[in-house]
Known about the structure:
This protein has helices spanning about 5-20, 25-35, 40-45, 50, 65-90, 95-115, 120, 125-130, 145-155, 175-180, 200-215, 225-230, 230-235, 240-265, 280-285, 290, 300-305, 310-320. The chain is mostly helical.
Amino acid sequence: MDESIQPEIAEKIKQLEKKFKNSGQDLGSYLDGLLHDRYLTYWDYIHLDTLLSLQIPRTHFPDEEIFIMYHQITELYFKLIIHELKQIIDDKLQTAEFFTKKLNRINRYFRVLIDSFDVMIKGMDKDQFLKYRMSLLPASGFQSVQFRMIEIYATPLANLVNAKEKAQFSEDDPLEDVYEHLYWKSGATDIKTGEKTLTLKQFEYRYTPRMMRIAHQVKQSTIYHRYLELPEKEQNNVHLINALRTFDTNVNINWLLMHMGAAYRYLNRDQGEVLATGGTNWKKFLPPSFQRIMFFPNLWSTEEKENWGQQWVTHQFNTTK
């Protein structure tokens, strides 16, 4: 070994030789690759040019680009949330500390999303929105599969059944049967005829196989199941319970109310309402007090369940009008 090489560098080379030898690889070949490789740049690492090329408006209205970017940012946050949910599901340590750490990250992401919704509520010109939205039909934020994945990872499908039919289903029922009665389907179904909107038909055709695959994968290992599998002492951890309740509140109350604020801002009129793109029944679908979806029902009192979402409604609409 060349004496001019610093001891710590020589030691690292030895470690690399051992690593590649154990895997049947030649260190010299990798060093040749390192020698010829270009320096990594920030823009290459995050694929900045590609990222900035993904905003493609369908109209000439400037604010449509805001609309596109906001939804793309939201989907990236959903991906971060799913990344943390999977780690909780895969964890074998069964400690409240790990569980809480991951939930705090998730709640931080949702807090950013909820706070950022002012971009949608106050950050776009209403007249522009009502015009360019007509070029988006039948696309709708309703078609966010990542949000549905968050729900599936979080709780058994039986907890996601619409309010009118929830008592008829349990975890013992076939997932395929339960899936047909999930609450969000009613949000894109014609109330008078019972016919599914094109928005829903497209969404189901594209994503039902993926959602059902995930539902089967986590049938007994959702976040709710993982919590119930914890030792009793860990289950009773106050910080963990608060984190779970915050997650439930963020997703099933606060996030929905922000959407309602945006819907009232852009779609509500004194003389009738403007239909949402995709034909979703937003006034029947979005209010949390209507569906009463809860990921962790055993963490809420009877009174809290009966008043689900109502204590947040007055404050929300006073701040968005």
